[in-house]
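Re: the multi-chain job from yesterday

Posting the exact lines I submitted so nobody has to dig through the queue logs.
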Amino acid sequence: MPDSYPAPARFPVTVDVVALTILGGALHVLLITRLLEPFRGTLALPGGFVLAAEDLVAAARRELAEETGVEQVPGHLEQLGSYGPAGRDPRGDVLTVAHLLMAPNFPVLAAGSDAEHAAWYPVGNVMDGSLELAFDHRQILDDAVERAKSKLEYSPLGAAFCGEEFTIAQLRAVYEAVWGTRLDPRNFHRKATGTPGFLEDTGQMFMGDAGRPAALFRLAPAARASAGQPTRAVLNPPLMRPHG
Amino acid sequence: MPDSYPAPARFPVTVDVVALTILGGALHVLLITRLLEPFRGTLALPGGFVLAAEDLVAAARRELAEETGVEQVPGHLEQLGSYGPAGRDPRGDVLTVAHLLMAPNFPVLAAGSDAEHAAWYPVGNVMDGSLELAFDHRQILDDAVERAKSKLEYSPLGAAFCGEEFTIAQLRAVYEAVWGTRLDPRNFHRKATGTPGFLEDTGQMFMGDAGRPAALFRLAPAARASAGQPTRAVLNPPLMRPHG
DNA sequence: TTACTTATTGTCAATGTGACGATAAGTATC
DNA sequence: GATACTTATCGTCACATTGACAATAAGTAA
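And the result, structure tokens for all chains:
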């Protein structure tokens, strides 16, 4: 009975953001260095308290903007899941609602001030243990990466890691970085260009450092519209990661 | 900065549960009739406040047990997502963490007391508008059903709607009820029995009202173990719902 | 025994995928 | 300019999976 007599417990609620991007062909995550206890000096996910009368995703977006100094953070932001409130913060019970941002690389505010500053770190360095994260952020990052891997399979959100326009090879690099596998360029090209409603040819070309120029694509309107949908409206059948 | 000076807002946190089951070939959801304002007399999802030092899923399980009178609620329970805290309860900002239970049919405590009593309602009656739900529970139910549909595709959790042992036809009835489509019995049989690590033949037979007796299966150990995993370790390639 | 029902096994064509050859179209080098 | 090198794009082929559907198995009811 939600309306019972003893006053219900109230919890501070935070939003944390796992912001992922591709840098140099490797998956990177946005982390801040904590300046205060607990976990002072340790890396942590950006985030902060939810204000009253604030939507969760909006709170995540606001915190991200505050901690990166970037007004309009690009990319696709969605809720990942909630953690706690018990036993995750030594100061007390705090519930956190984790979010996932899949974004093209964007520059974060230069470090050097006394504020907690954000920077991109290779996800692999967290996974292999060479980087420690505060609180239960390691677990949250794990879940976020798994979610991202899964999203690529059945949604067009791989393109969220690219800019507005991109080549097939750039899109493939996203898949390779997130999944941590190599994909056959020819088969990937076939699937990407052969899926109706996924990509739209811009008619322009992109010159890389070497090799034949590549055609530039953007997301087709149908794929753009399905961004929020949980259903795999576009990538059907899905583009499955190799299961080895 | 999560540790800044003004005391952070604190919110009451509830867990709500979308408990789904199959009854008479149709998807049903467990609902309670509210006895108190707001939404007095309206149907709502079972749920209640999270106690301090309590895990979210544990809280959901506890509330479910309290409101159904069932000690050990069967089935698979997982977190669905969080809603709020702004603008969902007229009494103030309440954050709710919704959960999804996929369970075989279990009897709920008989009605008649003055306590809020739970009962199974056809999901279709909510979808078509003949049943109204309190708060934003209609939205939560929508999300839960979509999640369940999706889960059937790439996880062995369809079996969570069945008992310990079940026939292929019973499992197929689950898929048909959740997806709201008819499936070819022969093709479903082939996929279910032909997927390594999914089902295990018990060697026993099940006599229905009519027709040839069916073999009884249970989940294979591999499928049982993958219950919590987000990855489609078992149903690979997935068993996709018809997209028409 | 016949009719009827559901379970289970096959068959076949269409589709999608993995592996990989061949060609196109740039840049750098001789 | 010719050649080497790089990446993009198009094709081919065998194989796996699926959707549609025939055929058979094994019960119950009449």
